[in-house]
Every structure is written in C-alpha cells, then in structure tokens.
Amino acid sequence: MIVLKDINKTYYTGKTSLHVLKGIDLKINQGELVSIMGSSGSGKSTLLNIIGMLDNHDSGDFCLNDEKIEHLSEKKAAFYRNKFIGFVFQSFNLISFKNAMENVALPLYYQKVPRKLRNKSAMEYLEKMGLAEWAHHLPNELSGGQKQRLAIARALISRPKVILADEPTGALDSETSIEVMKIFKEIHASGITILIVTHEREIAAETERIIRLKDGRIESIIENGQRKKWLESQHMA
Amino acid sequence: MNLFDTDKFSEILHALGKNKLRTFFTAFGVFWGIFMLVIMLGSGKGLHNGVSQGMGDMATNALFVWTQPTSVSFKGFPKGRRYNFNNDDTRALRDNIPELEYVAPRLQAQNTVVRNERTGSYNIHGDYPDMNEIDPVNILDGRFINNNDIEQKRKVIVIGKRVKNELFDADEDPMGDYLRINGVYFKIVGVFSSKKNDRQAENENQQIFMPFTTMQRTYNFGNIVFWYSMTSHKEIPASEALGKVKKLLRERHSVAPTDDRAIGAFNVEKEFKKMQTLFNGINGLIWIVGIGTLLAGVIGVSNIMLIVVKERTKEIGIQRAIGATPLAIQTQIVLESVFLTSIAGYVGLVAGVGLLELINYMLINFGASGEMFNHPEVDFNKAVSALVVLIVSGALAGLIPARRATQIKPIDALRDE
Predict the structure, then answer these.
(1) How many angstroms separate the CA atoms of B102 and B108, rounded?
(2) Within this chain, do residues B43 and B176 fall inside the same structural domain, yes or no?
(3) Are B413 and B320 in contact (CB under 8 A)?
(4) Does the pLDDT of residue A88 top 90, yes or no?
(5) CA dist., res. B361 & res. A192, Å (int)
(6) Chain B residues within 8 Å of chain A (Cβ atoms)
(7) Model confidence at A229, in pLDDT bands (50, 70, 90)?
(8) What is residue B41's predicted lDDT score, i.e. its pLDDT?
(9) Which residue range is the domain that position B281 belongs to?
C-alpha cells in the first residue's frame, strides 16, 4: 500500500537548513493500523505530510497504491488526496461557516458529486458517527469529541484507502480520546489502512504496529506481538 | 464546472460578509468609478445632443453660398462691386456640377402678414422643394412646397407653428385658409415645426415658405437669387463641390480668380467635422478619466482580495487537503472578485443612469434644456461594454490574489494560524 525507500527531507529557512527526514524506509500494508511515535522534532508529522502529499520529499522513492509519487502537479496531488486519503487533524480543521453536513460533504463537492447526492451521503456518515441530529449545526457549536468525529466522517466520505491522522486526540480529554480510538478501530475493521501520528503511548498501544522516530530516522518498529513487552520495558525504565 | 452553484455563492457571501465595512468601501471604489464614467459619458452625450440639435436635421454636407462685394478689380470692373446671383446661375450649377445633389436658390424678406384683424411680421422664404432635403422641417399638417408649385408659380405657403398659433385660434384649421402678405393672398397648404432647439427653433417656427418662383415674380425680384443652399452627393466631400461652385460662379460673374471675398460660403461639413473632432476629444478624455477611476476601484478590489486570501490561508489549506484543485480555489477567488465588482458596478451603472434620467426629467419639465445641453443619455451599447469591462476587470483583479492563494504549499497553508 505505502512503500517508502530512503526518503529524505530538508527544510530551508534562510541560510539555515534542517534535515528532518534522514532516509526513511518503511512499508505499510493494506488494512494495517499503524502509529508513528516520536518526540517533537523527530519528523513524524513531516513523514505523515509527505505520505499525504501535502508536502513533497527531496529524494527517495515513495509509492502509494503501486503508483510512484514524484513531481506531482498540484492538480494531480489534489486528485490523489481526494481519492486515496482522508485526513484527520489535531485541530480538526473544519470550515467554520459551513454546517456539519456541508463540512462532511465537502470532499464530494470537489469530486463534483451533485448536491443532493453528497448531502445524502454526508448524512449517512454523520449517522454512523452519531452526529445526525447535529447535521445543521456549525462546528463551533459542537464539543471537541464531536468535532473530531465530524472530521473523521469527512475523511471517510470519499471512501479513501488510507486515513492519515495527525495527533487526532491531541486536543481531546482522555475519555473522548478512547472514544475516538474506538472509532478508528471500527474503521480499521472495515479494511481501511490507518496511520496515526501520536505521542501518547495509550493511543499507540491500541495500534498493530508502532513506528518510533528519532531525529529523522526510524529508531524501532514494534510489531503487535511485541507491544506488551515494549510497554513493560517502558514501565521498567 | 458549475460556476453558479449554491456552495460557491454561500462561500462568496461568507467571505465578503466577514468584514462588511471593508467590503462596502471596496465596492464603493468600483461603484464610484462606473458611476462617474456613466455620468461623464451621459453629460458628454448631452453636450453633443444640445449642440447637434441646434442644427436640427440639416445635412452635414450642406453648403451655403452668397455674394459679397468684390475685393479685387478684374476685367475692367472696379473692386467693391456688388452683384447678384440669378436664375441662369441656378441652371448652370445644375447642368455643370454633377457633384451637387441638391441645389436650392433662395429668397428672403421680412413682411407683414395679415389675416382678418390679426397681423404679424414674419420672415418669408422663397424656396424650392430641395430645401426640405437640405435643412428639413417637421411637416405637422399638409405638405411642403412641391415642383408643381414652382412650375405654376402657385400662390401657396407653408407656415411655421408659431405663425399658426398667432394668427389662428386653437380650434381653427389653417389648412386651405388664406393669408395676405404684402397685399397678395396666399393659400396655406402646410404647417411645420422646427427640428432645431431653443432660439433657432423659435426663429424657424416664425417662418413662412412660398415657392421660389412665386416670390420672384410676385414681389418683383426679377431673376435674382439671394443665396444658394446646396449639398454634395453623399460620397463626395462638400469642400470639393464648393471649389467647383466657386470657380463656376466666379467665371459667370467676372470675379477675379484670386478674389476670395466676393463669394461668401459656409461649409457645414467643415464645421461639423470640427465639432466632431471636439466631441471625439471630449469623449476620449471621458473614457481616459473614467477608466482611470474605474481602474483605481478595481485595484482596490484586487488589494482587498489579497488580504482576504491571506486571511483565509488556513481555510484554503483545509480545502486543498481534502482535494480541492488549485483551479477550484482560483475559480472561487476570481468569482468572488467578479461578484464584488459586478454587483458594485451594476449598482453604479443603475445609479448613474438613474441620475441622468433625473437630470433629463428636470431639463424637460423645467424647460431648462438649452443650446448647449440636451437629453443626457448613455446608449445601451456603452452600458453593456462598461459592464463587460467591469466583469473582465473583476476577473483580472482576482487573478493575482488567486495565484497567490495557490502558490503557497498546502502544508504551509494548513499551519497558518
């Protein structure tokens, strides 16, 4: 599904440069639920953004769904993002002046799906997220958990292959975080690949594989079976 | 792509409604630009109408030729000699100068006109039917002088509106009635009104036309012609015909070829062209100033759109993250700009035309329209082209901000707070 080979990324700000990703090799299979951990500045968000084609890598190979992603035009990138990927952000990134239903329907708007059809589809996803009665409310009338469920509904509506979540629980309390993770697991159960960037161990622990980044390199990959062992070792440390 | 779906419009309205005062002032710039353009165009047209209506429907290639004392002695004649055109000249002009379309010899006299107990002093013109082609009047009733009148030297007249009003009661029909002019009775066969405006119209409405031949004979003018009104054929410059006319008349009256003063002439075409140049100049100036003002408004819009784009960076980032193509974003911003300029421009257009109509209404109702200003208006084509200019300039105003909106990488746009 997602294959990364020796991905490098450097940011330039004036005369100083910052080598953020230093040769990332990674393979994520279809249907996996993976988390990426690391301290701030480790490059985890950058990696997610490159996978989401919101940013481009400097060197290395990146294949998504067997297609090599290289020198994408913005138009093509927008097309891939719309078709393959659903984003969930820490700060929700909902459009403030559109109501819940319109927010969810937006990706279909860019696919030029007729209004009635996309609103119907949006209602279905809102229902799945238990937000049907909030369909005509604006985002700022919703709680944090509701906003994130709304964002997830928006990510799902275009039936993506991959969900990319950047600190999806970062702005939520622990109870809502558990609720959101439950939703991610349900989505995962339907066969969608999910990548979650997080720094919370409890969240990472819920995933099948944990990729730990440190200073732009993959420090360790912990498989499902080893998870408990890893947790224990963390506790012992 | 559907340009006019509800989502686009709700977005446009939201974006513009976010800062209403700012939107208002921006729109006002465009409003003012188009408003001024319309007012100036209308005023220019009003000036043009006023001046050109002073000429009525007079042919723009009309020529007037009359005699003046000679200024050069020639063939034994002293200078300062007075002479007259005559009927033979008329024939010679008609026979020898094919460039002329109409040739109307004219006579004129001021006379007392009597009907029963009423009298008035009016200008009597002896004319050919051609005259009504060169400098036409409105025939309100009956007819103008015709060729039979000329040939048979009929004692018929066509009277001006004011002559009728002064000599007849409102309920009387002047047609077929008789007026006594200098002791001779003439039958009224037509009533006319002037096509000109103001004082010139007043003068013309006090005139009486009679057949040229009748006037010559009845009042003992012999074969004298006071002056000629002529036009050249449409495709021939009036000045070219005038040259030939002058040459012929000089030869016929033993006027020195170098004597420019002996034949007086007025070339309407020349004056008309001068006027035309003046109005073209005024019009050009109006467009330059108007477009300049409009441009200032449009630049204002462009500026505001840049700020709007900056403010919405994050929102645009979100839209791109979930699959909006750069074209979709750009279309949205250009549409916003076009929307703003079109609405503001349309209001300006309507307000401008409204004000012109109001001025027009007042000019008519308070009788203020004069020789210099009449019926200000903006013709439909100009209004439409102004609207097209607006929409295009709105699109141009949106183009730079639209490019700016998609130049920034989506990830940077998303990070923008």
Answers:
(1) 19
(2) no
(3) yes
(4) yes
(5) 73
(6) 1-2, 5-7, 10-11, 14, 314-315, 317-328, 406, 409-411, 414
(7) low
(8) 85
(9) 6-55+273-415
Within-domain flag for B214: yes
Smallest Cβ–Cβ distance between B315 and the set A81, A95, A115 belongs to A95
Residues B280 and B410 in one domain: yes
CA distance B365 to B201: 18
- Among residues B232, B257, B285, the one where a domain terminates is B232
Superfamily of domain A2-236: P-loop containing nucleotide triphosphate hydrolases (3.40.50.300)
Q: Given CB atoms, is A11 within the 8 Å cutoff of chain B?
A: no
Does residue B62 form part of some domain?
no
- Best probe of the A interface among B2, B9, B316, B322, by most A CBs < 10 A, is B322
* Residue B364 maps to a domain: yes
Number of domains observed in the structure of chain B:
2
- Distances in Å between the alpha carbon of B387 and those of B31, B162, B343, B396? 12, 45, 10, 14
Whether the Cβ atoms of residue A107 and residue A85 lie closer than 8 Å to each other? no
| Residue pointed to by tokens 């009733």 | B141
The CA angle A145-A224-A68, to the nearest 5 degrees, is 80
pLDDT digits (tens, 9 = 90+) for A12-44: 888 888 899 999 999 999 989 999 998 888 889
Judged against a pLDDT cut of 80, whether residue B380 lies above it is answered with no
Nearest to A87 among B11, B321, B409 (CB): B321
Of B215, B232, B249, the last residue of a domain is: B232
Domain boundaries, chain A: 2-236
Determine contact, residues A201/A234, Cβ cutoff 8 Å. yes
- Asked, for residue B64, whether it belongs to a domain, the answer is no
B110 and B192 housed in the same domain: yes
DSSP string, B326-347: HHHHHHHHHHHHHHHHHHHHHH
Mean pLDDT of B168-181: 89
Would you say B253 and B83 are in contact if contact means Cβ atoms under 8 Å apart?
yes
